[in-house]
Amino acid sequence: MDTEENNKSNETGKDPERKTNTPNVKSKVKLKSYFKKNLVPLLLAFVLLVVLIWSSIRISVDAKRYENEKTQLITLYETQMDSLQVKHLEFASTVFSWSVRSELLRNNVENLSQLLTTFVKESGADLVQLVNPENKIILLSSDKKFEGNTYNQNLDFEIENTVVFKQDGVIRIVTPVMGFNSTIGILIIELKNDN
Questions:
Q1: Is the pTM higher than 0.90?
Q2: DSSP assignment of 113-149, as one string?
């Protein structure tokens, strides 16, 4: 009797054991035939997907590199501009010290005060001060509240040439004003460094 049931099930094509596997086998066969029929379009779609992913990564890497180069160029430019401005002010302070010297020797304080004000306006300096090297009293200042006070910053009053100091975001250009035999004043130009 078992053989008759098996024969019947084989004739109808319904095997009880094959019943559970039939949908998987059919889907695998359909999938294989679909891949065989559409091999070229599928390969092209895969290649297109790979190219899109690669180009997306490449664009991202290039954008990061561009931003790094841009930041470096901006920093280099700002450094060079600051350096040029400091060199310009260093030269201008030397020339300005000659005018200060002639006015100090003539004891013409009013004209000296006007020179200081004009120098600040034209040079872009934030503060200009003239200090007596003997007692460290500020004789003249572009900011009048400092006049008459003692200069309390760390500074060597025995300098013989123009010196540039960079400290705490402030660039200080210190120029001696020479008399006939000795230093008659110290010209201090301060410039705030914004970086």
A1: no
A2: HHHHHHHHHHH--SEEEEE-TTT-BEEEESSGGGTTS
Contact between 137 and 148 (Cβ < 8 Å):
yes
Nearest-angstrom CA–CA distance, 186 and 176: 5
For residue 141, give both structure tokens: 């200042």
User: Is residue 114, in this structure, part of any structural domain at all?
Assistant: yes
Name the residue range of residue 168's domain. Answer: 89-192
Amino acid at 193: N
Q: Are 154 and 177 in contact (CB under 8 A)?
A: no
Report d(CA 194, CA 76) in Å as an integer: 15
Statement: residue 1 has pLDDT above 50: no
Residue 22 has pLDDT above 80, yes or no: no
Per the domain annotation, does 165 fall within a domain?
A: yes
pLDDT tens-place string over residues 34-72:
888 888 888 899 999 999 999 999 999 999 999 999 999
pLDDT in tens, 138-164: 888 888 898 888 888 877 777 888 888
Bridge partners, 188 (sequence order): 129, 174
CATH number at residue 96: 3.30.450.20
DSSP state of 115: H
Domain count, the chain: 1
